[in-house]
Amino acid sequence: MVAGDPPERDQGKRLLVLGAGPAQLGLLAAARARELHVIALDREPSAPGFRYADRRAIVSTEDESSIERLAGAERVDGLIAPGIDWPVAIAARVAERLGLPHPISPETAMLSTSKLRQRERFAEAGVPQPEYVVCSGAAEAAEAAQRIGFPCVVKAPDRQGQRGLTLVGSAGEVEEAVRTALDASRSATLLVEELVPGREMTVNAFSVGGHFFPLTVTDRLTAPLPAFGVALTHVWPSELEPAEIGAVVEAASSAARAVGIENGPSYTQVLVGPDGPRVGELAARLGGGHDAELCRVALGVDLNGDALSAALGEEIPATALSPVAKVGGACVRFLVAPPGELREVTGVEEAFALEGIRGIRIYRRPGHRFGELRRGADRAGAVLAVGDSRDEALERAGRAEGIIRFEVDVEALV
Ligand SMILES: Nc1ncnc2c1ncn2[C@@H]1O[C@H](COP(=O)(O)OP(=O)(O)O)[C@@H](O)[C@H]1O
Ligand SMILES: [Mg+2]
Predict the structure, then answer these.
(1) Are 281 and 354 part of one and the same domain?
(2) For residue 105, how many other CB atoms are within 10 A of its CB?
């Protein structure tokens, strides 16, 4: 990649990035290309994003006091938490306490990191969303599930990446789903929701001064059960009709307004059922599935760069948010490894040489133990592909996926 000279405004600026895992790779690479001084933190010493950092700190992305100390000691000019939920609120609070610029307030960050608090706010603001009931135990949840009907969804209100999430098919499955949700929940509460059947879209957007700029609107294609809700592909453009896409964008925009996002990136999941769009959830951050990289190849908008600018309090010109279709179609296809201990990954270079393959990320190193696919964190990597059409991008991604092999030792599991 040709990085070019870093913008002068960035020279000497110091940025703290919360997380150095798969979901932060794109932003970290972009920060490195801009020659920012990057301090990355992650509790996992082998986190793949550390290779882009000038300094690495083995600190949990949820350890607020350590993060504040580190930000102070490193005299950073800004903090950012791309692709992960809970640390978004930590970044906003620490920025406020240290008097650093930040795109969102702690209040907005808190609303956007709680599925429950945002549901309440959406209800007040009239944002369309699935029917939901807040519960604290099995009896309440059983009653709520009966009222909502089966199948329904039980989830922890303050987790991401399918942790604590269950699709519940019948009354007999409620108890176990409640246990799963409460085990994951930070708050001793859980949500029982109507299952919105149909499609699911992601709206990647960026706000400047209260103006919401929608960028890539992608179809989210999910894994077969039991990996409920785990994305295997994000593909652009959506197959929906333009008018339906317009309604999806309107729903995402109203959700962003409701939680008070006036600046910076947002990532909104919209379920499109028979009664129109319903906002599944919103996050005040970049998506964690290479959404910014997809946006860049599809529309020429550098969402990673814009998010970096926002985190450093720099002005973002409207030209930085003007989409121009660069290709006919683009997709991110996630890779899944067979269960076992990873020995090696082969075929990556060969796959990268295929036409239309713009990026490949491998998330894990040899020695990592893969289990069955259940959640987002179980995925093994991703391919970014483009084509003249959505179908061509998907086909090319599939070809690359077929060449990349995760060699695992199965015995190591026992
Ligand atoms: N009420 C719902 N109706 C339909 N699908 C849902 C519902 N809730 C969750 N899902 C599916 O599960 C996925 C993950 O749920 P979500 O609430 O976004 O939590 P998280 O992304 O934090 O795991 C969604 O993207 C969607 O595919
Ligand atoms: Mg989600």
Answers:
(1) yes
(2) 18
Pocket of ligand 1 (CB under 6 A): 130, 153, 155, 160-162, 165, 193-196, 200, 222, 228-229, 269, 271, 280-281
The answer to whether 217 touches 248, Cβ cutoff 8 Å, is yes
Question: Any idea what the CATH number is for the domain that residue 173 is in?
Answer: 3.30.1490.20
Bridge-partner residues for 203, per DSSP?
217, 268
Q: Tell which residue, 254, 291, 241, 244, has the closest CA to residue 129.
A: 254
Whether the Cβ atoms of residue 414 and residue 370 lie closer than 8 Å to each other: no
Ligand nearest to the CA of 148: 1
Q: Which helix (H) or strand (E) holds 211?
A: strand 211-222
Range 28-52 burial, b when 16+ CB lie within 10 A, else e: bbbbbbbbbbbbbbbeeeebbbbeb
pLDDT for 17-40, tens place per residue? 999 999 999 999 999 999 899 999
Taking CA atoms only, the protein residue closest to ligand 1 atom 8 is: 153
Structure tokens at 78: 């800004």
Ligand 1, residues 152, 165, 222: which to mutate, most atoms within 8 A of Cβ? 165
Q: Per-residue pLDDT for 11 more than 90?
A: no
CATH code of the domain in which 56 resides: 3.40.50.20
pLDDT tens-digit map of 189-219: 999 999 999 999 999 999 999 999 999 999 9
Question: 59 lies in which domain range?
Answer: 8-102
- Asked if residue 206 and residue 179 are part of one domain, the reply reads no
Same domain, 54 and 41: yes
pTM as predicted: 0.95
